[in-house]
Amino acid sequence: MIKCNYFSIGFLLMFISQICLSFPHDREVWIKDNLEAIVFAMCDKKSYFRQCFLVDDKKCKIVARISISRCMDEYRTLMPKTLEIPFDDEKYRPLIGACSGGQYQARLKNFSKNESICSGEGKWER
Fold first, then answer.
1. Which residues pair with 26 in a beta bridge?
2. Contact (Cβ atoms closer than 8 angstroms) between residue 67 and residue 107
3. Cα–chain-centroid distance for residue 98?
4. CA–CA distance, 15 with 23 (Å, rounded to integer)
5. d(Cα 61, Cα 58) in Å, to the nearest integer?
6. Phi and psi (nearest 5°) for 88?
7. Angle 101-105-106 from CA coordinates, rounded to 5°
8. pLDDT class for 50, splitting at 50, 70, 90?
9. How many whole angstroms separate alpha carbon 45 and alpha carbon 31?
């Protein structure tokens, strides 16, 4: 009869599932793909960035692209050339998102609406 150590089996299964569920992705392709995905999310009509700033869709997308591109450039050097998805995606997307939101707010501070849903630090992170 074989005696099993459940901790070791659990660890092994977790390790195997991570290997099987991740895949390599080129950093530059990831950056290009995520640029548009983040622009789309930031400039949705119901997003904080559209509801709390006096901008139309076109201006939102222009400012968002500039903000996101700057943040992507900032984090590019920290990222490996080949990302392991979804693990690196879960690591870098929130960092770039937070950076981009801050950049967007700073660029459009003179266009911010003075409404209760828009006030306070980090409201866009909800």
1. 82
2. yes
3. 7
4. 14
5. 5
6. -70, -30
7. 115
8. very high
9. 24
User: In a 10 Å sphere around its CB, with 0-12 CB exposed, 13-18 middle and 19+ buried, how is residue 44 labelled?
Assistant: middle
Q: List the beta strands (DSSP E) in 1-126.
A: 23-26, 82-85
pLDDT tens per residue across span 99-120: 999 999 999 999 999 888 887 6
Mean predicted lDDT score pLDDT of the chain: 83
pLDDT at 92: 94
CA-based radius of gyration for the chain: 20
Instruction: Report angle CA 85, 43, 22 to the nearest 5 degrees.
Output: 5
Buried b or exposed e, range 88-112, using 16+ CB within 10 angstroms: beeebeeebbebbbebbbebbeeee
pLDDT, residue 118, reads 86
39 CB-side CA count, 13 A: 20
Residue 10 in tokens = 């659990």
Contact indicator for 43, 59 with CB cutoff of 8 Å: no
The pTM (predicted TM-score) of the whole model is 0.76
